[in-house]
Amino acid sequence: MPDSDDLLIGEFPFLPKQERAQQKRNALLESGQILFISKGYEQTTAKEIAAHAGVATGTFYRYFSDKRQLLMSLLEDKLDKLLPPEPSWISHDPVSLLASLLEAHNKRLNELGIQRVLPELVMKDPGLAEFLGDARRKIHSRILLGLKQAEEKGLTWEDLDLETVAWAILVLVENGHGKEGQTGKRADFLEISKVMCRMVFPPDVLQQLQNTDETNNPISQK
After folding, report:
1. Strand ranges inside 97-197, DSSP E
2. pLDDT band for position 117 (50/70/90)?
């Protein structure tokens, strides 16, 4: 585990090695996730998590220092699923590919649900805010790298500020799922993908990419 994660989560009281003990710890993690989502983080107690998992409260503290450590363990374990996908800008039909990535990401978030407890914690927990901020910056860097690869192939707008566009894309991805949760209306990820691709590609380039077979060279450089 990276040092930054050690500082965020802290040292566990006990890390089980036997299968039965691992099952108890996993039951606590699963129960914590269920209760955090259904009741909210602040309204959930360690005692309730233990009862939901079918173990004594003392067993909870055998594996976790407090409910925050349990939540941080959940976030660390599921971070890859929580973070937005990295678009591929030099692939065949980037609009359709990006839309499918966003659909899959939205489905993962709906299944996980744990991200719903984050807004109430970020303002109160500087360590968590820093942890999530670092994760966002890493995703931004990966999006930026992909944009630079597209620029090197002559596919992007010539005057594009790639770093700013990378942040705009990240925000659009994050808000796509957030808007669905706030309004109750299903997000149109195809339309979101079109907006993103129009920021990156001139219309003629985008059209040529969409019309190119996957087996062929996508487009010649300008």
Report:
1. none
2. confident
